[in-house]
Every structure is written in structure tokens, then in C-alpha cells.
């Protein structure tokens, strides 16, 4: 029985999902189109032409999925709310039927003894807002605060804590700089205003949520950055990459300023996006928790492309997931200690809001068990080292629509047959269930 993890009392065990990846029902009950509906319709945009039109059909099958979580024994569920389901045009009239769905889901979770942790934005921007500029338009931040308010007014009496944004770094880079995710823009460094406007949206929404007595988190993909060598040029490249990937979205929240991006030829106003008072708003009141999505470290070398001040270098000599990502559990421990060293007393409590791996389609997913065990070892060591860690949400409950990879990568504890929608727990499901039960018994005995 796995019971070796020394984690604090009250530690929350959970699973994570995202609306577009599991809900399906894209035309149901007044939901408006999102940027992902538009992007997946582009020929060649998604592997094998897959879309999230049906996905896991969670919109209709949510009671079955809540029962799976009850069987798993989790006490927390991190899911996202689809903005186009609540406000089909991203502004103005509220779609009551859409909020009814999340109302039923929240009640079902609470009946199962599971605390809901909703994320307000997991990349599915209403297409109507993208048509007027999306996250390049400052007004989108204000529309987000309006959406956060109406959603919290409906659900906030039963939802104690909210995550505003998921992985704003990935959304900016993949969606606006490189064009490999929705909305598919290829602006390179001209995408930086999308970073600031997402953070401004967080600040505005956080203020609205706090007036309603709710706690506020934000979740970002963070990575320990390692220079390819001790050569000064590699170390400088690693610092430049760290500023973009990690500090761009964390320094403003915790320190009230942007990092030095001069290596990119970018000033502190991010191409004029930053207005007076913005950074104070973004950092005001701090965070009640920082969500850390961790998958792997990043190794960086001196640039080979004159357009960027860094080049990514491979991490050799480690296992790899089905997706090809390096498996380095030690990186989670390294990352958390780096955050404490960097932000000190400004660092809020940490929740690992995503961590997991893709495997093949078999039910005997031993590589996932090994992956989760190694990362939980690293997390427990960080807790022993004094890091305030409050919870762990593995990605993901279900095999789902994995963005540009369609249904080709499977991250779930539960196998989904996308033709029949049959759910079948994998070996990792049983392992995680037994782990949670053992940890709970250990905590009760101490």
C-alpha cells in the first residue's frame, strides 16, 4: 500500500479537466462558438482532423464522471467553465441554460463529497471576442471580469475558491505567437500584449471575486530552466528564456513589475499595452494560492536563430512519455525551491493544479503510475523542505481531446472509447485510489 508521502494535514487530492477537452455538446443549449470551434475547422490544424464537438460528451455524461471521481476518492475536482456557454458572445446577455449545467455539476460534486475548483478560462475564448481582437484587445480583460462576476454570482455560494486563468503563457505563445493553437495567430513577439491583457483580466476578476468573499488562484505552466552548459552565452540564454516562460506571468503578480525583457528588444510597457495603475491592480491583494502546472524542465542553449535570444536543447538520458516529453520528477522539486528562493514571503501556498503524462491506449498504464509516483516523491520532499503545498491535481481524469494532437495522446486515469463513450478505469486509477485511501488513513492516525 503506497503510504510513504509526508504531506501536510488537509492536503487535497484531486483530478483536473478542461471544458473544451471533455464537454462536447458545442451546439447545445445556447452555447456560442469558441476560438477552438473555429480553429479545429481549419484543414490540417488538428491531427487526423479531430475536433472537440463531442469529445467525452461530459455535458451529458457528467453524473457518470462524478461517480468515477467518487470511486477514486478524490476530495477536489479542478474543471473549467466554458465562457461561450455562459456568455455566447463574450459580453452582454447571460445564457441561463449554460449556467444551469455548471449548477448541476457543482451540486453533484458536493453531494459526492468533492470540492469544486473551477477555472474561468482554459483557452476557449468566445469567437465574437476574438473577432474584435481577442486578448490583443484591452477590452477583453474587462469582459472577462464581467463574465467572472455573473458566474460567481450564480455558483459562488457553493464554490469557495476560483482559478482565473489556465496557463496564460502557453495560450499566448501557442495561440498568438506561433499559431499552433487557437486562435492560430503567428505574431511572434508582437503577441506580448496578450500576456498583459490576460494578467489584467486576472486582476480585474480577482477584485470581483474577492468582493464576493471568494479565494483566488491562477494556474500557469512553469518549468525549471537549465542552461545547456556553464558557458556564459548558454547561461544568458537560459536567463532570457526563464524571463519569458516563468517570470513574465509571475513577477507582475507577486512583485508588481515585469521582468527584464531587453534580450528580446522589448521594454517594460510590452509594446504599449501597460497603462498606469495596471501593475498595481494585477498584484493588489496577492494570491490566495499559486497553481503550478508542471510537466518537465527545459534545457536552453545560446541562440541559433537570430530572431530569438535562446535555443531549446534536448534533455538526454531520461525516459520519455508517449508524447515525447522528458520525464524528470526532480524538476518539480527544483521548481518549487526556485519559486521560494525567488519570491520569498510573497510566494503564496502552492497547489499542483496539473501533473501527468500521456501513455498508449492500453489499460495497463504502468508508465503513468511510475510518473505519478516519482512526482509525488518530489512534491513530498518539497513539503519537507518547508514549501507550503496544499494539493495535487493529476492531469487528467479522462482521456480527452488533447488540443493539436486530437485524440492521439491519452492522459487519463480513465480510458475513453471515443466511438462508444465507454469509460474504463486504468491501472493508474486503482493505484491513485489506493494511494489516496492510504494517505487519508495515515493522516487520520497521526
From TrEMBL:
Binding site for substrate: 21, 122, 166, 295, 395, 402-403
GO biological process: cellulose catabolic process
Transmembrane segments: none
Catalytic activity: Hydrolysis of terminal, non-reducing beta-D-glucosyl residues with release of beta-D-glucose
InterPro entries, sorted: GH, GH_1_N_CS, Glyco_hydro_1, Glyco_hydro_1_beta-glucosidase
Pfam family membership, one: Glyco_hydro_1
UniProt-annotated catalytic positions: 167, 354
Gene Ontology molecular function: any one: beta-glucosidase activity
EC number: 3.2.1.21
Group of enzyme by EC: hydrolase
GO CC field: cytosol
Alphabetically ordered keywords of this record: Carbohydrate metabolism, Cellulose degradation, Glycosidase, Hydrolase, Polysaccharide degradation
Highest taxon of the lineage: Bacteria
Family: Belongs to the glycosyl hydrolase 1 family.
Record-given protein name: Beta-glucosidase
Species: Kitasatospora setae (strain ATCC 33774 / DSM 43861 / JCM 3304 / KCC A-0304 / NBRC 14216 / KM-6054)
